[in-house]
Write a structure and sequence with these properties.
Helices cover 15% and strands 21% of the residues. The protein is built from three helices and six strands. Helix 1 crosses helix 2 (24-33). The chain is elongated, with a radius of gyration of 27 Å. The termini are far apart.
Length: 194
């Protein structure tokens, strides 16, 4: 036996299904069994879709002193783009958002670079610079991994729409010693390219 469904009942069922985020058939069944015309529907349930969350660690910009800032990044050593690096465990930890290093100054924030000596500051392509920059006269020994810089550079690869490697970029990855500075960013960052 087939039951006729009026257009008005269909319209109300679609509205109820959308309002309460329930299947159309459940909304139709509820309206059919509801005999009270003054019945007020329960408040809408929270959505099962969540807004993306990312871990983010604020790191200081390079100290420029009297140097002229890089024209491309304005002296902060970054492009403004980010990579989201996932955590490989089942803990539910959100991915870490890391920043892309400026390709012009390679993270130092300075506009002028001597061809032989550079500018004397840490660059993304200079792995040994992280280790050599530590002052032996400091009272307190800095972190073993980053030697007090709070980050290290990590190469990354962007991919095109077909998944093919497109470009090598450097990422400013926070060191583990900065874990206590982590905060959660809720929502979509301007551009996540990883």
């Amino acid at each position: 036996m087939s039951r006729h469904v009026s257009n008005d009942l269909k319209r109300r069922a679609r509205a109820l299904a959308a309002q309460e985020n329930i299947p159309y058939s459940a909304a139709l069944a509820r309206l059919r069994t509801s005999r009270d015309a003054t019945h007020t529907p329960p408040p809408p349930r929270p959505s099962t879709w969540t807004v993306p969350q990312y871990l983010f660690i604020d790191l200081p910009a390079p100290e420029l002193g009297d140097a002229r800032p890089c024209d491309d990044c304005g002296g902060n050593g970054l492009t403004g783009e980010t990579f989201a690096l996932g955590v490989n465990d089942d803990s539910g930890t959100p991915p870490l958002l890391v920043e892309v290093v400026c390709p012009s100054c390679l993270g130092c924030g300075r506009a002028e670079h001597d061809e032989e000596r550079g500018c004397g500051f840490l660059h993304a392509e200079d792995d040994e610079g992280l280790l050599d920059d530590w002052d032996d006269e400091q009272d307190e020994e800095p972190c073993y991994s980053c030697h007090g810089h709070l980050f290290y550079y990590l190469p990354g690869i962007t991919k095109d729409d077909n998944g093919e490697p497109e470009q090598v970029v450097y990422l400013r990855h926070p060191c583990g010693c900065t874990e206590d500075r982590a905060r959660i960013i809720t929502g979509e960052p301007e551009k996540v390219i990883g």
